[in-house]
Structures are given as structure tokens and as C-alpha cells.
Design a protein that fits this description.
Blueprint (H helix, E strand, L loop, with lengths): L2 H32 L19 E3 L7 H21 L2 H20 L4 H6 L18 H7 L14 H4 L3 H12 L5 H13 L1 H13 L1 H12 L4 H4 L3 H20 L6 H16 L8 H12 L5 H18 L3 H12 L9 H16 L1 H19 L8 H22 L6 H4 L1 H4 L14 H18 E3 L2
Antiparallel strand pairs: 1-2
Helix pairs in contact: 1-17, 1-18, 2-3, 2-10, 2-22, 3-9, 3-10, 8-12, 9-10, 9-12, 12-13, 12-14, 13-15, 14-19, 17-19, 18-19
């Protein structure tokens, strides 16, 4: 690429970013106007600072300095370190750095408000841990406590998910790790592991060079604001490892591909009992198999999924009944007043601050190799940039499908974490000489959001 062509591409990146920023600003301004239709203290949108579930509250906290230090270290040394470390060292380094970034951001709000108290509110899972005594009775009666007006109605987040989500925190409590602090530590630890899982997937499908280039961007993801602390961060980590194992099995980059595929199925099946919306992961799984041009893992994946279906069904919970009852409960709450016409585009605007400006520019770059890669799949497996374009396109398609469903009106900066993390590898397509600048932009988005707003999660 000539110098002039390179400059032209960089200008197009900036135009794409400007468009995304304009979308977010428009969602904020239009949201304020719509919220003048009074419906409680948060307007008809039921949001304090649309399109985000947040409130304007400039503040600093014990994690502020640490977050800046982590950001500076990754911006300055991240790209070179990602190239220099051995692969075996890079994976734990990326996971560790992502944890440091996420913990620092969470502590901007302080220990109680930012960490220990996040999952103990009236909407959250920990309020219901003590209600689970007998597993079979819990599963059998779970759906009966979802609807408003039901006896002993579940809190919003318990009712809004299959029983696997609550059972996770019940399990932690039973082994002596009860309470908000341990629950938060679990969500951050598992949630930030997405960075290593996505790295494994990109290397298996697209090559090690692109994986190394993506590594610093996986660390400084603005999505860390919501990974620390929300259960959806935990869901994202589990789902990411399901996809990573599937990629390893499909590309035969493991000594035991059948066992690895079974592990992918077990994790995938578990995600479906953590969140109903994660069934759309089949799109990403299909993309992985198409890139690898292999269906060999599929029987073992299905076997792993079937194990969870059989276990939960035998216990008394029938997934389709839970989902249809949830839809009714959903429209008993804020969804009945939140306008679909606003959130169909404002949901996407919220992702601008979740995936960050670098990911927006990266997605623009991915558009170029996407069509040639898709068109050539009949002849040969896509590789390199083409494979990466297909992978991130699948992540974007999951968002669009969830958006069109109408079951994600607001809070998508948290709910869509599982999808958002798969757009981040697109940053590897940005010119290497610009990586430090784009990393600084990623860090700035997260720091501004966390210091100017008090987020709901």
C-alpha cells in the first residue's frame, strides 16, 4: 500500500469513528428529549443517562490512579510486549493485564459500591441464594416464580435468566465463597478470561501474527467497565472459551480434538442455561466451522449440549417454558413502556462505548476482506485477514439479531458483552504504527465513562 493510500485509509477510519460518535451523541440527546415523557424518576426510557444505564456523577476513587497506570503501561509497552513474549507466556499475561484493568476500573467506584455490593442489590442473584435448598424442587418450581404476581417472585435478574445463573452463585456459597465480594471476584476472574480465549481463537483460525496484534486491544477493552462487575461478564468468559475450544477442535490444533469438541459443547450448553439470549452463539459457532471448513467437531459438540439439556429437563426445568414465561415477564416490566423505535438504534449506539473507537475503525477495515473471504469459501478456507473479517462479522451479526428481537431494550452495554468481545479482534487490522494511538483512545473511553458516570453495573 502506498503512503497516500495508507493516509486515505486512515482518514476513512476517522470518518467511521466520527460517525459512531455522532450516533452515540444523537442517542444521548434524543434520549433526553424522549425522557421528558415522565414515567417515574428516570423517564419513559427508565434510564438515568440514555442510552446507557447510568447516572451523571463525576467522581474519583481508589482505582483511579491504578487504572491510569495500567492504561499507560499497555499503551506504551503493550504492542511490543505482545510481539516479544512467547505464546505460552502471552496468554496468562493478557489475562492478568485484563484483570488488572478491570479491577482498577471497578474500584473507581470504591470497594462497596464498585465491587462487593454490585451483585447484592434487590435485582441481583445473591438475594435469592438462600431460597435454594433442594435442587430438584428448585428446578421443578423455577418457572412458577417468574411472572409478576407469582408467589415468592424471583428478582428481575433471576427471573430473566435460566436457573444456571443463580445456581452458579449458590454453588459458590455452598463451598464457602458466599457474599458479594466473592461473587464479584468470580465474575471478574472468569469474565476477563475472555481475552485469552479470544486470543486462542484468533490464532487457531487467523494466524498468530493477527492474534498478537489484537492482544493489547483485548486487554484495554472499554467493555471492562461492565465486566467488573456483572454476571454478564462471567457469561462472556464461559462463552468465549466454548468458542475457543471449538476453534481448536475444528482446526485440529489440539492432541485430543474429540475431547476438546466435547468440552466446547459442555460450555456452550452451559451458556444456554446461563442466559436465554446466548442461543445466538450458534452463529459464531457456525462461522468457526465455516472458517475451518470442518464439521467433524459437531457430533461431540451436540453431545455436550445434550448433556445439559438432559440434566436440567430431568430436574424439572424445561427451557422453552422458561423462555416463553420470561417473554411475558419482560413485558410486565420496563419493556412495556420503553419504545422499540428508539432502542433499535440506541442499543447499537451504546456499543460505541463498550467496544471502543478502535474497534469501530477495525470493523470498517474488516469490511474490505469480508466479501472476498465469504465468496471464496466454496473453494478454500479463508485465512488471515479474511478469516478475521468473517469472525468479527459473526460477532456483529449476533448483536444485530439480538437487537431486532426486541428483547434487549436498553442495558445492552452489559447484556451484549458476550457479543461485543468478538468485535475487538478487528483492531488487529489497524496499521501497527497507529496502535498506541488507538489503544490510548480505548483507554480514554473507559476512563471517561467510569469517572463521569455511575454505571448500573
Amino acid at each position: 500500500m502506498t503512503v497516500s493510500a495508507g493516509k486515505r485509509e486512515c482518514r476513512r477510519d476517522l470518518w467511521a469513528v466520527a460517525g459512531a460518535v455522532a450516533l452515540f451523541v444523537s442517542a444521548a440527546l434524543v434520549g433526553r428529549v424522549i425522557n421528558r415523557t415522565v414515567y417515574g424518576t428516570e423517564g419513559i426510557l427508565r434510564l438515568g443517562w440514555p442510552p446507557l444505564t447510568a447516572w451523571w456523577l463525576p467522581h474519583f476513587g481508589p482505582g483511579s490512579l491504578a487504572a491510569v497506570v495500567v492504561a499507560v503501561l499497555v499503551v506504551v509497552h503493550g504492542p511490543s510486549t505482545a510481539q516479544r513474549l512467547s505464546w505460552r507466556m502471552l496468554l496468562p499475561a493478557v489475562w492478568g493485564a485484563a484483570m488488572a484493568w478491570t479491577w482498577s476500573l471497578a474500584l473507581v467506584d470504591g470497594w462497596e459500591r464498585g465491587v462487593a455490593g454490585r451483585l447484592t442489590t434487590g435485582l441481583e442473584y445473591l438475594r435469592s441464594v438462600g431460597a435454594v435448598h433442594d435442587l430438584r424442587a428448585f428446578l421443578h418450581d423455577f418457572t412458577q416464580h417468574i411472572l409478576v404476581g407469582s408467589p415468592r417472585i424471583w428478582p428481575a435478574h433471576v427471573a430473566g435468566h435460566p436457573p444456571g445463573a443463580l445456581l452458579t452463585f449458590v454453588g459458590l456459597d455452598r463451598i464457602g465463597l458466599g457474599g458479594g465480594a466473592w461473587a464479584a471476584a468470580w465474575c471478574i476472574t472468569v469474565g476477563t478470561s475472555f481475552a485469552a480465549a479470544v486470543l486462542v481463537t484468533v490464532r487457531a483460525l487467523c494466524g498468530e501474527e493477527l492474534a498478537r496484534r489484537a492482544a493489547p486491544f483485548l486487554v484495554l477493552a472499554p467493555a471492562a467497565v461492565w465486566i467488573g462487575v456483572s454476571a454478564d461478564g462471567y457469561f462472556a468468559g464461559v462463552a468465549a472459551w466454548a468458542v475457543a475450544l471449538l476453534a481448536l477442535a475444528a482446526t485440529r490444533r489440539t492432541r485430543a480434538p474429540r475431547l476438546t469438541a466435547l468440552g466446547a459443547g459442555l460450555l456452550l450448553g452451559w451458556t444456554w442455561y446461563l442466559s436465554y439470549g446466548l442461543t445466538v452463539l450458534v452463529l459464531l459457532g457456525a462461522a468457526v466451522l465455516l472458517i475451518a471448513r470442518s464439521a467433524r467437531p459437531l457430533p461431540y459438540v451436540l453431545l455436550g449440549v445434550a448433556a445439559w439439556v438432559a440434566a436440567f429437563t430431568a430436574g424439572g426445568f424445561w427451557w422453552p417454558d422458561g423462555y416463553t414465561t420470561l417473554v411475558e415477564r419482560y413485558y410486565q416490566g420496563a419493556a412495556k413502556v420503553r419504545p422499540y423505535g428508539y432502542f433499535i438504534w440506541a442499543n447499537l449506539a451504546a456499543q460505541v462505548v463498550s467496544v471502543g473507537l478502535a474497534a469501530i475503525a477495525g470493523l470498517r477495515r474488516a469490511a474490505g476482506p469480508l466479501w472476498p473471504a465469504v465468496r471464496g469459501m466454496r473453494r478454500e478456507a479463508p485465512a488471515g485477514r479474511g478469516a478475521l473479517a468473517v469472525l468479527v462479522a459473526a460477532g456483529l451479526c449476533m448483536m444485530l439479531l439480538a437487537d431486532a428481537s426486541g428483547m434487549s431494550k436498553a442495558e445492552t452495554e452489559r447484556i451484549w458483552l458476550t457479543f461485543a468481545v468478538w468485535t475487538l479482534p478487528a483492531c488487529a487490522l489497524l496499521p501497527r504504527r497507529t496502535h498506541s494511538w488507538w489503544l490510548a483512545a480505548q483507554a480514554a473511553v473507559a476512563l471517561l465513562v467510569n469517572h463521569l458516570l455511575l454505571t448500573g453495573w
